[in-house]
Sequence to fold (56 residues):
Amino acid sequence: MFRNALEPWHLLILGLVIILVFGSKKLPDTARSLGKSLRILKSETKALKEENGEKS
Fold:
């Protein structure tokens, strides 16, 4: 049923819809914020793993 559910032209249409909804001026700021959030999450999980490793 969903064998070819996600084809390249689906991604193109999805990208165009995202640009139309958010606007081309907001997308770089949004991507920058997402990257910053992911870096913070990565550093926090690394610190948590190191903390758990030292206690064991």
The first helix runs from residue 8 to 22.
